[in-house]
Write a structure and sequence with these properties.
globular, two-stranded antiparallel ribbon
Length: 133
C-alpha cells in the first residue's frame, strides 16, 4: 500500500457534506456505508452499517514519512487520528474534482468530474432463506 501511495499524484478536490465543505489536495478518498474497506481496514471510528450515513475519509497531500504513519494507522485502526486525514459522517457527500478523473465506485471504474453519493433507505431489496436449525 505504501508503495502505491508514494507514487500517487495528489488531486485537488472539494468535498461537501450537509455540515461542511473541505478543500484540498488528496492522495486517497474513501466513502463507504459500512465499517470497513479493502478488506480489514476501518473507514472511520464512527462508521456503522446501520446508521444511514456514509463514512468518508481523505488522505491529504503529505510527506512520505506521514504516509508511513497512515499505513501504520490503517493497520492499528487509528488512521483517523492523523492530522493529514480528514473524516466525516454524512447522509450525502458531493465530491468535485478539478477535472474529470477515474474513480472506482462499487467495484466499477467510471470517469467523472463530480460524484454525488448518498444513502437511500430501502433502495435495495435483499432476500435470504429462512434460518436453518
Amino acid at each position: 500500500m505504501l508503495r502505491g501511495l508514494s507514487g500517487a499524484e495528489a488531486v485537488a478536490l472539494t468535498i461537501r457534506t450537509e455540515r461542511e465543505e473541505h478543500r484540498g489536495r488528496f492522495l486517497q478518498l474513501v466513502a463507504a456505508s459500512g465499517r470497513g474497506h479493502a478488506g480489514p481496514f476501518p473507514v472511520t471510528e464512527a462508521a456503522s452499517l446501520i446508521d444511514g450515513r456514509l463514512s468518508v475519509y481523505a488522505v491529504g497531500e503529505t510527506a512520505e514519512s506521514s504516509l508511513t504513519d497512515y499505513v501504520a494507522g490503517l493497520v492499528t485502526r487509528t488512521h483517523w487520528l492523523l492530522p493529514h486525514v480528514w473524516t466525516a459522517e454524512a447522509a450525502r457527500v458531493e465530491i468535485i474534482a478539478e477535472k474529470p478523473m477515474s474513480w472506482v465506485v462499487d467495484g466499477d471504474r467510471i470517469t467523472a468530474e463530480r460524484l454525488d453519493l448518498e444513502i437511500r433507505a430501502g433502495a435495495l431489496r435483499v432476500s435470504s432463506p429462512p434460518l436453518c436449525k
